[in-house]
Amino acid sequence: MREPTLAAGSSIGCPDYEVDSFMLAFVLAAVGVTWYAVRRYFEMVHANHAREAAESDAQLLAYHDPLTGLPNRRAERKTCFGCN
Fold first, then answer.
1. What's the rounded Cα separation, in Å, for the pair 41 and 47?
2. Which position has the higher pLDDT, 45 or 15?
3. Distance (Å, whole) CA 82 – CA 84
4. Is 20 inside a domain boundary?
5. Least enclosed by CB within 10 Å: which of 17, 52, 67, 76?
């Protein structure tokens, strides 16, 4: 590696690394973090859809007979009396 020099001809100290290697490391780190964030986002979207489906199934089972699919007493009371 060449030593950087001042205008007067004296050399100054310079670390033993190239700026390009640090730029490459930063770019790769940014790509990795972005990839991880996108992957986590889609995992959270999938988990949210699964949670909504489970809540919908629980609501259906709360107001309907699982064997026949007909409304049960709780659904009848909710409909007839307007209570929750």
1. 10
2. 45
3. 7
4. no
5. 67
Residue 14 included in any domain: no
Q: Tokens representing 58?
A: 């629980």
Asked whether the beta carbons of 28 and 39 are under 8 A apart, the reply is: no
Domain count, the chain: 1
Phi, psi of 71, deg, nearest 5: -60, 145
Q: Look at residue 58 and give its three-state secondary structure.
A: helix
Q: Across the chain, what does the average pLDDT equal?
A: 83
58: containing domain: 35-81
Cβ(84)–Cβ(78) below 8 Å: yes
Domain contains 7: no
DSSP assigned state of 16: S
pLDDT tens for each residue of 36-55: 999 999 999 999 999 999 99
